[in-house]
């Protein structure tokens, strides 16, 4: 899937040749940085949206979860990234989603926070390695260089193909049923438009509605929540992507770029 309408072209006046070339290069670099930052934000919004969809599926379909639900939602997200995109886009998204976990870990470390072993989510570094491992395990021959590039130790790499197969055996039949189901339920976008989060989420809602249906509608809200967060709310079966999250992701990008 390509996300439409997320990059704009700059038009520039042409001045004296030498000056124009220098300014053009500087402007291009700035523009490239902005594009890079936006791509990082988009990739992480997609990865997080898929994670929340994992929670939604567990609840709406009454799926059994053998282990931590947060881990199951992470696995659903990685499989959907692998399934829904062509190879170059999937690789780009996996890199940026992985970097998102690393940046979270770096910020926590720089603030002197202890690793939150008590948290319902696994530690960010562990989520990073699991993402890399499962993504590489989906296509180990072609993604060997991704594993090397992202520092996945050989010891873990050895089990990644099997780990992916187990994940696929768990979530794969669920996704297959959603494709074959006569169900009427769809993802229903609600909330504020004309912002990057809404653009990304609307593109995902549209693409996923082309392939999946659910027993009931799943409301997808993009709105201000007063915190940088994204969550599934079992009380009304809805996914919320908070508008504040985008700024947090831009902070993560700045951390990563340092
Ligand atoms: Zn979660």
From TrEMBL:
<protein>
    <submittedName>
        <fullName>DUF4344 domain-containing metallopeptidase</fullName>
    </submittedName>
</protein>
<dbReference type="Pfam" id="PF14247">
    <property type="entry name" value="DUF4344"/>
</dbReference>
<dbReference type="InterPro" id="IPR025644">
    <property type="entry name" value="DUF4344"/>
</dbReference>
């Amino acid at each position: 899937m390509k996300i439409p309408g997320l990059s704009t072209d700059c038009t520039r006046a042409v001045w004296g040749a030498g000056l124009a070339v220098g300014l053009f290069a500087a402007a291009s670099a700035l523009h490239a940085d902005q594009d890079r930052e936006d791509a990082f934000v988009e990739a992480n919004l997609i990865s997080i949206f898929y994670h929340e969809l994992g929670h939604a599926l567990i609840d709406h379909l009454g799926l059994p979860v053998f282990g931590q639900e947060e881990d199951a939602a992470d696995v659903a997200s990685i499989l959907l990234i692998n399934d829904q995109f062509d190879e170059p886009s999937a690789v780009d998204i996996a890199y940026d989603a992985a970097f998102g976990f690393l940046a979270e870990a770096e910020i926590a470390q720089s603030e002197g926070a202890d690793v939150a072993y008590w948290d319902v989510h696994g530690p960010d570094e562990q989520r990073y390695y699991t993402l890399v491992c499962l993504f590489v395990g989906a296509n180990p021959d072609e993604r060997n260089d991704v594993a090397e590039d992202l520092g996945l130790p050989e010891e873990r790499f050895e089990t990644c193909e099997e780990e992916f197969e187990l994940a696929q055996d768990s979530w794969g039949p669920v996704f297959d049923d959603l494709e074959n189901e006569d169900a009427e339920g769809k993802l229903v976008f609600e909330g504020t438009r004309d912002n990057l989060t809404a653009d990304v989420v609307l593109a995902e809602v549209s693409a996923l509605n082309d392939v999946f249906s659910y027993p009931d509608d799943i409301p997808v809200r993009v709105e201000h929540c007063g915190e940088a967060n994204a969550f599934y709310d079992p009380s009304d079966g809805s996914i919320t992507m908070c508008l504040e999250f985008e700024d947090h992701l831009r902070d993560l990008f700045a951390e990563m770029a340092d």
